[in-house]
Amino acid sequence: MKDKNLHIIQKIGANVCRFLLAASFIFSGFVKAVDPLGFQYKIQDYLAAFGMTSWFPSFFPLLGGILLSAAEFSIGIFLFFGIKRTLSTTLALMLMIFMTPLTLYLAIFDPVSDCGCFGDAWVLTNWETFAKNIVLLIAAIAVFQWRKMLVRFVTLKMEWLISLYTIFFVFTLSFYCLDRLPVLDFRPYKIGQNIMQGMSIPDGAKPSVYESVFILEKNGEKKEFTLENYPDSTWTFVDTRTVLKEKGYEPSIHDFSMMELSTGDDITEDVLTDMGYTFLLVAHRIEEADDSNIDLINEIYDYSVEHGYKFYCLTSSPEEQIELWKDKTGAEYPFCQMDDITLKTMIRSNPGLMLIKNGTILNKWSDEDIPDEYVLTDKLENIQLGQQKVRSDIHTIGYVFLWFVIPLVLVLGVDILIIRRRERKREKRKQQQEMKEQ
To answer: Residue 264 — φ and ψ, nearest 5°?
Structure first.
């Protein structure tokens, strides 16, 4: 009796831990899959912090990020359905054995601000992440040890179909969001966000003090300057970064600053308070930007000039790279320099296009989805493109959920029919056997 009770407790504990791990892995893998470039940037931060950037080819952060997010999501689904039990529990345990000491190191030495385990959807401190991983490591050990007690929701004959579909789904989702834009935007520059409001600080709150540092070069010598001692035009821009000088209340947007290249003026407030439309072409590194759709970008600039709208290209690249871009693409639009991390946060495309009005983000497009002359048929005031795009995260999550769940429900339905058919056959054979015995 005692052994039976112990077995029941172990079985319940194993399945509770199994669902805890499944929820964590599914959520973690999903939020990374919908923002593959964001996870790529986080991996790049890790490699830079550990001095390992040169160890890997340039494509590794993106490819590694997509593979890891797919692995996490798939492991979570496998655990949820109780399939591939040896594989899923072993991989879950291996990941937690690797991640737990890593997050302890991050918590102690703080080489990166957060681990990025849940992307931008849920940002945890390094110590919070370590505590979370301790719990998940204990759960992973229990699930691995008692993996034979995990309750299966599908038969062995159907688990391969669910496994293949799960892997296909998560890779398709990642590559779609990479080609377009993340279907869910967890960043402060989402559509509908007012940038000025995102930069505001509540009354009485002490703000953090930031300083823009500009790295300039002259006669082979590089120096750092701030806005207070910005030199004359004989210096060549190399890079810029935002430095935290004093910690305080931190608004969701704290490093949005547009410095026009031709004049050296900060035009941030003028742009964000303009009641008209402004197109912002975002290319965080202009030398790495895709120029395959440059004709469309130039057409939108011509459209902006024709109708009196503002158009700026925002980049963190040095002036010589901007000049090369102009020569290569025939770009005539004005350029502004901005912090590289800010630009990566604004839009997950290089280049990408944003439309704002009075500081509010009305729409965003990836390089592959830039509007053309068939859409820009009139002034923005008179067409749908000039209105704020309506987005609902709940509806988006619902659509993605249905795309994933409906095929699985069909598979489970087939599985149930097969099981019932087998039971009927067994019952029929049993009845026939009983009749023979009589």
So the answer is: 80, 10
Block mean pLDDT (10 aa), the chain, length 438: 76 93 96 94 87 87 94 96 93 95 89 81 89 96 94 82 91 94 92 91 75 83 82 80 73 87 88 94 93 92 94 93 93 92 93 95 93 89 89 85 84 71 72 67
**Cα angle for residues 417, 422, 423 (degrees, 5° grid):** 95
Give the closest residue to 389 by CA, choosing from 191, 193, 196. Answer: 191
pTM: 0.83
Owner of token pair 């940002």? 123
CA distances from 182 to 195, 252, 349, 420 (A): 19, 19, 10, 42
DSSP 337: E
- d(C-alpha 395, C-alpha 210), whole Å: 37
* Amino acid symbol at 76: G
Alpha-carbon distances, residue 343 vs 7, 212, 277, 285, 286 (angstroms): 55, 14, 20, 9, 11
Q: How many residues does the chain have?
A: 438
* Domain 195-386: CATH class, spelled out: alpha beta
In the chain, list all ranges with CATH 3.40.30.10. 195-386
Q: Is there a contact between 312 and 271 (Cβ–Cβ < 8 Å)?
A: yes
